[in-house]
Design goal:
Largest sheet: 7 strands, mixed
Number of domains: 4
Number of strands: 12
Helix content: 55-70%
Shape: elongated
Structural class: alpha/beta
Oligomer: single chain
Number of helices: 16
Length: 576
């Protein structure tokens, strides 16, 4: 007999399975009816009564299984009727008649009767226990040869043993075939479901990536207009305040979009770091700048301590991700601290010619975290509530993402906290050193120099009108001579006429007619000396950076960008 929970099989297989199960029931009924007739004919009336009780159990089980769809009830009916029947037959005919074989068959059938659902595990254990008890009971109470049938000779008992063992052997073979077939079908079904799930996941990833790209494009437009407003000299105090609020909200919206895209990458196993050489001291010096105004408004002391050993050291790191982690930890510190101070420290723990190990610590005097919650805060959508605020804000994704980033860096975030006294988050990262002890007097052109782009001709290829307006205005303010194209095809036309003037192309990747991925092949083929920098609203990844490098891009700027970011990249290309 087979039993399955409804959802184990697809809908189109249910009817076949029910028919197959009915066939198994009929086969067992025929076997049992045969034994009932055989026993009655031989005058083995107790065995006849036992077989009749088994037949009654099968019929009742079939009713509950096929008509009522009560699968577990059907299984228990079989075990609670066939089990006593086998015990009675074994006691009446003796162990040498082989009736105990049916109990062993029941034991073997359990994995096929209770199917694959984790919540059926306890029922499997119960049925195994019932079957083992039956075996022990038979072995204790049953004699080797019958004492109830004086006319039954040892030869007839041995014939019974042969018949019973043969029937049970056939049933076990049937169960073996069913088990192999069922397992094969189940594995095939799992494989199909896995393929379907992967396809759905790929579709979701593609859709989410498209949505993320569109959202970041619009955020970039808002950012561009906001920066143009803030850069105006004759801006009234109230207007500047409104623009700063808009800029703050725009940045918060970008963080939320990035968090959602990041957590999806983490869940799909596609999260990765993009390590490039960076001056670690300069990266860390900018960490607390965005929080200065918040500290002033909340009347909190903000302390920054960066180890002097980090001066003029270049290491391989993902600046965006390290900054993201530290900003998340600092943001939480400010969110849950109303009085006292917040400190950020970067301390060198160990250093040699090849690597440097740095410990980062963010400490606050806030509300603290209960001990039982100190690990759950790193789970997605988990938040610690501040008593002074009914809703602390955010998505509850920041720490989950930070934990993944730090683990990708080969470290773990450590938490020390005490209620109403504050918290301390720390992690130690070992960075690969690229350049050490660079001359302190080395001079570079400032990215904020008013006219550092003078005599530089730049082609801006961008289909978004607002982004074009902002970049064009920004570059002109710094002395650049600009050309504009709304797609890759137009850019190639301009290069044909102005290629001797144009030194740099800012090329958007997603555009109609001809996108940046196609345009770069034509540009680098005909004008290999022109510097081409990619514009993209996608979050950069290692694979993406490698792909852009292989296509011929010299660098990349991720939207939405700040003025300092685009000018820094341009400065690097001009001075290299």
């Amino acid at each position: 007999m087979l039993m399955s929970q409804k959802k184990d099989y697809p809908d189109n297989a249910k009817k076949k399975f029910i028919l197959f199960t009915a066939g198994v029931y009929l086969s067992l009924l025929l076997f049992t009816i045969f034994f009932a007739i055989f026993n009655y004919h031989k005058g083995l009336y107790y065995s006849f009564y036992a077989a009749s009780f088994g037949i009654f159990g099968y019929l009742l089980s079939m009713y509950f299984y096929i008509r009522k769809k009560k699968y577990l009830t059907a299984v228990y009916i079989v075990y609670l009727t066939l089990g006593p029947a086998v015990v009675l037959a074994s006691y009446a005919e003796g162990l040498m008649s082989g009736n105990y074989w049916f109990v062993l068959t029941m034991l073997y059938a359990i994995p096929l009767m209770i199917r694959r659902k984790h919540y059926f595990l306890k029922h499997s254990k119960i049925l195994y226990a019932i079957t083992i008890v039956l075996i022990l009971l038979i072995s204790i109470i049953s004699p080797m040869y019958t004492e109830m049938y004086p006319h039954l000779t040892k030869g007839e008992t041995h014939t019974k043993l042969l018949i019973n063992s043969t029937v049970c052997f056939i049933v076990i073979i049937i169960f073996s075939i069913i088990g192999l077939r069922s397992g094969k079908l189940f594995i095939r079904q799992l494989f199909k479901e896995k393929q379907r799930a992967e396809k759905e996941k790929d579709n979701r990833t593609r859709v989410l990536a498209n949505i993320g790209h569109e959202l970041r494009t619009q955020i970039n437009s808002i950012n561009g207009i906001t920066q143009l407003i803030l850069e105006q000299d004759k801006l009234e105090k109230k207007e500047k305040e409104y623009a700063e609020i808009l800029d703050y909200c725009n940045n918060k919206m970008l963080v939320l979009v990035n968090d959602i895209l990041d957590i999806h990458k983490i869940e799909s196993g596609k999260f990765e770091l993009n390590n490039i050489p960076r001056d670690l001291n300069k990266v860390l010096a900018k960490i607390t700048i965005p929080f200065l105004n918040i500290a002033e408004k909340k009347n909190l002391t903000l302390k920054t301590v960066i180890d002097k050993k980090l001066s003029y050291i270049t290491v391989n790191l993902d600046e965006t991700r390290l900054t993201q982690v530290l900003h998340n930890l600092l943001s939480n510190a400010f969110k849950f601290t109303e009085y006292g101070s917040i400190s950020f420290t970067a301390e060198v723990l160990e250093e040699n010619n090849d690597v440097i190990n740095v410990k980062f610590t963010i400490t606050d005097t806030g509300i603290g975290i209960p001990e039982e919650l100190q690990m759950t805060i790193f789970e997605s959508f988990q938040q610690i509530k501040n008593d002074s605020s009914s809703f602390p804000g955010g998505t509850g994704l920041g720490l989950a993402i930070s934990k993944t980033i730090v683990e990708k860096m080969g470290a773990n975030i450590q938490v020390k906290s005490e209620l109403n006294k504050g918290s301390s988050f720390s992690f130690s990262v070992t960075f690969e050193k690229i350049v050490n002890n660079v001359s302190k007097n080395q001079e570079k052109i400032s990215a904020n120099a008013t006219q550092f782009l003078s005599n530089t001709s730049i082609l801006i290829v961008e289909d978004n009108v607002v982004s074009m307006m902002y970049v064009n205005k920004l570059l002109k303010n710094h002395g650049a001579n600009t050309f504009q194209a709304i797609n890759g095809a137009k850019a190639i036309e301009i290069l044909k006429n102005k290629h001797q003037e144009i030194e740099i192309v800012l090329l958007d990747l997603e555009m109609p007619v001809m996108n940046g991925f196609k345009a770069i092949t034509f540009i680098k083929k005909d004008y290999p000396d022109v510097t081409v920098i990619a514009f993209t609203a996608n979050i950069p990844s290692e694979d993406m950076m490698q792909n852009l490098k292989e296509l011929g891009f010299d660098d990349m700027i991720s939207k939405p960008f700040k003025k300092e970011e685009i000018l820094t990249v341009l400065q690097k290309k001009i001075t290299s």
